[in-house]
Design brief:
The chain is α/β, with parallel strands linked by helices and 453 residues long. A hairpin with a 2-residue loop joins β9 and β10.
Amino acid sequence: MTITRRHVVALGAALSLSLAAACGSSGNGGSSGNSDSGAAKPAAVSDADLRNALNTGGTLTVWAWEPTLKQVAADFQAKYPKVKVNLVNAGTGNDQYTALQNAVKAGSGVPDVAQVEYYALPQFALAKSLTDLSGFGAGKLDGTFTPGPWAAVHSGDGVYGLPMDSGPMALFYNKEVFDKHGIQVPTTWEEYVAAAEKLHKADPKAYITSDTGDAGFTTSMIWQAGGKPFTVKGTDVRIDFSDPGTQKFTATWQKLIDGKLLSPVSGWSDAWYKGLSNGTIATLVIGAWMPANLESGVRAASGKWRVAPMPQWEAGGKATAENGGSSLALPEASTNKNLAYAFIKYASVEEGAQARIDGGAFPATTAHLKDPAFLNKKFPYFGGQEVNQVLAESAGEVVGGWSYVPFQVYANSIFNDTVGKAYTSPTTLQDGLKAWQDASIKYGQEQGFTIQQ
């Protein structure tokens, strides 16, 4: 589904009131992360309490668009026959977030469980719309998940979701196209630019990749380069795209833009799928959840694609970033939290995690990433390659210390109005990022944040 700017801006407006209220009530400048350090600790819920909730049963409403949860819900109900799970697709991504915030504001119709992407989680946590899961013992799961997703569900001292999947990045490439033109798989971004030049010179209809401006991709690339443009401490936020990591990315990517070496086809469009199928788009630098999308959406290219480690900013480096991924969270207004937590634990840590992997999801759990059956799985689509070995290695190499701003959903909605101009006008990427920075700062200040730059 294509998410329009209108949907995202609507969400930004919907969250404005609750964000401002949260900012106004959080007076602790010394708090860490996004939460109020003076907040009361959530009441403890024991394993016995969770077992009692499962034995008592009840109905859970789960808002999620991720397809593998259908099997998880069915298995959960079979194991706990007194529980009924109503799985509702309230929209993908921002459409669901808008519906969720509307329900929270109205005080009715709020689900017991909601799928929330990592980049959006801080915005809901700060607005106090989500339950801190520390009281359920979520902190004891430290080490259960890979570092990137586990860090992403934290806000201050609280845990506001359980990681459902992850998106460590890798290079997906069309081996047939590379072989035809004698192109070696790039191991550095410098080699990637050289490959782009060689490919487009050999076939003017072919491009190394497509990019018309995407906030998630851009921030992930900056993340891998060691950039930290966003820092958050309570309601004190710093936004600064002049850091060395950001400049590494912009200097390299600007060469591709200036050389007209990027396909002008928008991601996830029909033309994009066609380009991936016919070889005119030769690579994707994207999250580990991509294999299932290629298998279902680019069937004609089966056997042609392969997966390699993400190109590095320095030769011999081992650094990656996350791109995408979601958590399962409990809205604060949920009236059946014990049962809801039992469900998200089942789906993310227990038997449900394996069911999702079997359905094509990429795990966030360290145990599954080390499982020989997972690592040694051969993918016919990728010519029999054991793709998960590359992706699991990437998961362990995600650069630490990354943060999103607590109004990232809104910030992403204005990306094309700022950074996007670098793809269609003389504006440079670095200038576009400065415009994004300025617009985001203005919005954050309007919501009551203390913004530094």
